[in-house]
Amino acid sequence: MRxxxxxxxxxxxxxxxxxxxxxxxxxxxxxxxxxxxxxxxGKPDFSGIWQANNEANWDLLGHAARAAILMQPGTHPxxxxxxxxxxxxxxxxxxxxxxxxxxGGEIPYKPDAAARKKENAEHWFDRDPEIKCFLPGIPRAMxxxxxxxxxxxxxxxxxxxxxxxxxxxxxxxTVEPPPNDTWMGHSVGRWEGDTLVVNVTNFNDSTWxxxxxxxxxxxxxxxxxxxxxxxxxxxxxxxxxxxxxxxxSWKMSMPIYRRLExxxxxxxxxxxxxxxxxxxxxxxxxxxxxxxxGQDMVVDITRRVPPPxxxxxx
Length: 314
Prior knowledge:
The chain is of the alpha+beta class.
């Protein structure tokens, strides 16, 4: 009787294991096939809504988390504290840590350019074009914490960015360059196998590369490479060259991910109106923003009209 019960239990357990393995195999065969990469005229179709998922907009280099971008000396030289403009934001105004996106972990600034970059970082609150809602430029538009959409044709690829309604066209055919330098540059593309290679020139010097004060001159030249990792991810690489600012060319790279929400769409973020008071409030005869009182803090605002070379310094 005991042996019969044992044999019955062995049969039941064996049948259960076989059933689980069969079910697992069925699911694997149904889910193991990755979505096929869509193509246009034999080339990868990058159409869709995409977004970087990193901290490059705060700082391109690896960095530890800190209380705020704008800091001032504290009671100890090694323990700075948030400066007044960012103090009220608390943890919401902090900077997340990052491993960085720059190959080699170094941006090769010339000595005078490195000094200007440091000064930019110290005056980030007054100088960063992002705060003023200016067009972000390339490559910064690619890793802002906002989505962008790609519309791909055979001779033109359009990229539309949520921030500030920025946009650019990648010309896959021969076109004349713009008559003047531009915020978003002039993009000319070609295919190298499945990699989209984009040569970007004709920049002005009005954009930054990050909130850390990284900048460039109007001699900026970029070579971007978009390589599909899968149907939902792109390897984005950009080589940066600017002989007025850097001692040599350098490269950053990162993955960019497709937004997979069923209702994914690009929403309007016309932030120009949102910074109007900050940019032009000092021109009002009766200023609207003078004081803010919270539960634990009172902030008094004293406006000054800085010289134009400081207000619009890039």
